[in-house]
Write a structure and sequence with these properties.
Helix content: 25-40%
Number of domains: 3
Number of helices: 16
CATH topology of the largest domain: UDP-N-acetylmuramoyl-L-alanine:D-glutamate ligase
Structural class: alpha/beta
CATH superfamily of the largest domain: Mur-like, catalytic domain
Strand order of the largest sheet: 8-9-7-10-11-12
CATH class of the largest domain: Alpha Beta
CATH architecture of the largest domain: 3-Layer(aba) Sandwich
Number of strands: 21
Distance between the termini: 78 Å
Strand content: 15-25%
Length: 461
């Protein structure tokens, strides 16, 4: 029995009181960082721990460098230090996530809670997010994920960048294991969601293609529970199946009652053929022509997604088209570069069987006399790796390219004898080969998982 006059506080209440206290300190700072090297002064430093690092070891250095506060683990050695600027918690990552969720919940725009749009998918997440950001920015102040900071750390950092000027937030979410998207939506609390597509990626973590669909579908699961809206590419049978399984179109009197449909075919758009004169993606919608700086017809779905989001949020169509047309990709995503000697199609930030197939199909349709493909391993495919890499080799060699260079242990393990195929263990080895055997007057596709570092061949082309 509790002593008379003593108030019992539940663990949940205690946790909320702790977050409110930390949130008040965060408002003094206005920003957070997890890297003591990026401090400019006045930030709240979070001492995160990983397999090979412990941010708690840098907490005092962060304070010396100008951090206003440092959030550290109670069980760390630095927690014994008697410094009022140290905020001691059980789990710094969990606290970062709870602070982000609280900040998102407490942000009010025009008397209403801030609107958050979440997107995930196997391919095209970052490009779609950047296109949506560009389109919405024609009318609103938008806070969006920077780069691909889309995991359990990146999503909270994105949310904590929401400020008094933010009118809409666009949050990219990545996943490599079941439950990853559920964790992220429970932090971001999105009002709208979009899955770009589902394909074979991270099979080592997901276990199967069904595992990919189930995990990406955790975004649909959340929005189904909250009765919020889903932007859906209704040309995509996998996404339609996922929506149907979750009864997102359960009301026969209101088809797509929870869905906002889009799609190249659905919206009556036409993807024009690329050529030497027009190498970039072009789309005709009615009397309008959209000329982009993106390489690859597979980006048409990403463009249509951005236009659909813009239309729903009241961005004039002409402004949306101008935003899409002005967007220039970066970071080795769907980029075309002309060097002194060659034309390069660089899509080397990531690769999986689905995106590799799309890239090869698009490259087959490029009008050029001398086409060369340089393909790096697709990582994290588990027991499906050998079969998927062999399928890519066979597909690439069947398309009439002048030469195909394969890079990585996975490709080498299933190598086929062919006059058009050359295999290397690393991108460094390929780069050295190209120095002695220069490529000139060619159109070159460079594609591979981030870990293969295919961008290393660019300087010698």
């Amino acid at each position: 029995m509790k002593p008379r006059g003593v108030k019992v506080v539940s663990d949940q209440q205690a946790g909320e009181m702790e977050i409110i206290s930390i949130y008040n300190k965060f408002k003094e700072c206005g920003s957070v960082t997890t890297d003591s090297r990026t401090l400019k002064g006045g930030e709240m430093f979070f001492a995160l721990k990983g397999e090979n690092f412990d941010g708690n070891e840098y907490a005092m250095k962060a304070l010396e460098a100008g951090a206003a506060y440092a959030v550290v683990n109670r069980d760390s050695s630095v927690a014994a230090t008697d410094d009022p600027r140290l905020i001691k918690v059980d789990d710094t990552l969990k606290t970062l996530q709870e602070l982000a969720r609280w900040h998102r919940s407490m942000t009010i725009v025009n008397g209403k809670p801030l609107t958050v749009i979440a997107l995930t998918g196997t391919n095209g997440k970052t490009t779609t997010k950047e296109l949506i950001r560009a389109v919405l920015s024609a009318r609103y102040k938008v806070t969006a994920t920077e780069g691909n900071l889309n995991n359990s750390i990146g999503v909270p950092l994105t949310l904590l960048k929401i400020n008094k000027d933010t009118q809409l937030a666009v949050v990219e979410m990545g996943a490599s294991h079941p439950g990853d998207i559920k964790e992220l939506v429970d932090i971001a609390l999105p009002d709208y969601g979009l899955i770009t597509n589902v394909g074979k990626a991270h099979l080592l973590g997901f276990g199967s293609f069904e595992g990919v669909m189930n995990t990406k579908g955790e975004l649909y699961d959340y929005l189904r529970r909250t009765s919020d809206k889903v932007f859906i590419n209704v040309d995509n049978p996998h996404l339609c199946r996922m929506a149907s399984e979750r009864n997102l179109q359960s009301d026969p009197e209101r088809p797509y009652s929870l869905l906002i449909p889009y799609g190249v075919e659905y919206q009556g758009a036409t993807v024009l053929e690329s050529s030497a004169e027009h190498p970039f993606l072009r789309i005709r919608i009615g009397d309008s022509m959209i000329s982009t700086n993106l390489v690859g017809a597979y980006n048409a779905d990403n463009v249509m997604a951005a236009l659909a989001v813009g239309q729903y949020f009241g961005v004039p169509f002409e402004d949306a088209v101008n935003a899409v047309s002005s967007y220039v990709p970066s970071n080795n995503r769907s980029q075309m570069t002309r060097t002194e000697h060659n034309t390069l199609i660089v899509d080397a930030y990531n690769a999986n069987p689905t995106s590799m197939a799309a890239a090869l199909e698009n490259f087959s349709n490029v009008s050029a006399d001398n086409r060369i493909a340089m393909l790096g391993d697709m990582l994290e495919l588990g027991e499906d790796s050998a079969a998927e890499h062999k399928a890519v080799i066979e597909s690439a060699l069947s398309r009439g390219f002048s030469k195909v260079f394969f890079v990585g242990n996975e490709f080498s393990a299933v190598s086929l004898v062919s006059d058009e195929a050359v295999f290397f263990q690393t991108s460094d080895e390929l780069a050295e080969y190209l120095k002695s055997n220069p490529v000139q007057g060619a159109t070159v596709l460079i594609k591979g998982s981030r870990g293969t570092r295919m961008e290393k061949v660019i300087p010698v082309l």
